[in-house]
């Protein structure tokens, strides 16, 4: 197993119903979700899922309602038992864990941030933030400094003695993130964590998560149905439909090379200039261009480069990573990258 793979999922199936093993045989012979429900009254939740979740990265699992994304994340800490397959965390087979090992996994190795906040209404903000440590046997006095530290880090310093009902939705979700961080677990599971928030607060929370990730390098599994959120957060993107993986990979690569009509439809209306990054279209080279218009970061989006160039398609920029050149970007290549793929054009003609 590669040393940088934190969680490995192999051949994972989940079928809901009274005789899932029998239904699994039909699925493996090619029966789909709709037919399985119609003929055998079983629901195909997950079908042959294979994903490697790398340490220190944000893996985003995206799909519409009913795609299986929340079912998948709940398999990682065995809140849901699979019908078949393998889940390994740090090389250990989670499906072989006994009750004590599972408790340790859930309390110390994985934390979870929920869509509905899941704060205890009769506990203060401080007590909610320290809940993961409280269930391990720490007293309030013992976990207070750790909880205060993370509440301050997420912008809630001074709110420690308030109760959840006294906070806005965005502030309550910050408590949920502080609770996950205070547990000091290397893996964070975030199930539609920002979906219940207003758009502006949601954007602020995304920025906060990225800021924290730059500092902490957690292994984060993030569930969403929103493509813009997925493209903003993901190091690795997994797109689900009807319980199976349609496409996975580096999000910029998926955007540039969508391989399925389902994904082409997803990306048809997005602002490509806003979500595409320089690193996706640059020419990799350490050789400086003969006539450079300046330096840009590999992480800059194309919209910012267009503004910098003032629309001049003859300009060429050096692309930098931590003060070292890693590539060159010609504005002509940028303009070509903004044109929809052939698949997307064909989709538009059909419509």
Structure description:
The protein has 2 domains: 53-267, P-loop containing nucleotide triphosphate hydrolases (Rossmann fold, 3-Layer(aba) Sandwich), CATH 3.40.50; 272-337, CBS domain Like (Alpha-Beta Complex), CATH 3.90.1280. The chain contains 17 helices and 14 strands. 36% of the residues are buried. By secondary structure, it is of the alpha/beta class. The strands form 3 sheets. The chain has a 6-stranded mixed beta sheet with strand order 6-7-8-3-9-10, with helices on both faces. The protein has a 4-stranded antiparallel beta sheet with strand order 2-1-4-5, with helices on both faces. The model is unreliable at 343-351 (pLDDT under 50). Helix content is 41%, strand content 23%. α7 (140-153) packs across α8 (169-182).
Main attributes?
351 residues; 2 domains; alpha/beta; six-stranded mixed sheet; disordered C terminus; CBS domain Like; Rossmann fold
């Amino acid at each position: 197993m590669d040393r940088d793979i934190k969680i490995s999922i192999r051949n994972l199936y989940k079928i809901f119903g009274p005789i899932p093993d029998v239904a699994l045989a039909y699925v493996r012979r090619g029966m789909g979700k709709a037919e399985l429900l119609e003929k055998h009254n079983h629901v195909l939740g997950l079908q042959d899922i294979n994903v490697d979740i790398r340490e220190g990265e944000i893996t985003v699992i995206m799909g519409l309602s009913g795609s299986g994304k929340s079912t998948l994340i709940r398999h990682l800490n065995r809140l849901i038992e699979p019908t078949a397959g393998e889940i390994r965390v740090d090389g250990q087979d989670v499906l072989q864990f006994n009750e004590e090992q599972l408790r340790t996994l859930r309390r110390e190795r994985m934390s979870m941030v929920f869509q509905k906040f899941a704060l205890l209404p009769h506990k203060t903000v401080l007590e909610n933030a320290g809940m993961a440590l409280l269930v391990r046997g720490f007293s309030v006095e013992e976990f207070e400094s750790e909880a205060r530290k993370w509440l301050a880090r997420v912008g809630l310093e001074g709110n420690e003695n308030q109760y959840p009902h006294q906070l806005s939705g965005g502030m309550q979700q910050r408590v949920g993130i502080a609770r996950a961080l205070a547990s000091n677990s290397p893996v964070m599971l975030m199930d539609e964590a920002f979906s219940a928030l207003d758009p502006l607060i949601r954007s602020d929370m995304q920025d906060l998560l990225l800021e924290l990730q730059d500092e902490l390098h957690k292994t984060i599994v993030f569930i969403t149905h929103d493509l813009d959120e997925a493209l903003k957060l993901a190091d690795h993107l997994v797109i689900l439909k009807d319980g199976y993986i349609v496409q996975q990979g580096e999000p910029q690569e998926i955007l540039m090379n969508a391989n399925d009509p389902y994904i082409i439809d997803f990306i048809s209306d997005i602002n490509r200039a806003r979500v595409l990054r320089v690193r996706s279209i640059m020419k990799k080279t350490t050789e400086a261009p003969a006539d450079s218009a300046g330096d840009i970061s590999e992480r800059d989006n194309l919209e910012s480069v267009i503004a910098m160039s003032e629309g001049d398609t003859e300009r060429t920029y050096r692309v930098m990573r931590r003060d070292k050149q890693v590539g060159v970007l010609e504005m002509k290549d940028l303009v070509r990258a903004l044109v929809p793929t052939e698949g997307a054009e064909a989709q538009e003609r059909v419509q």
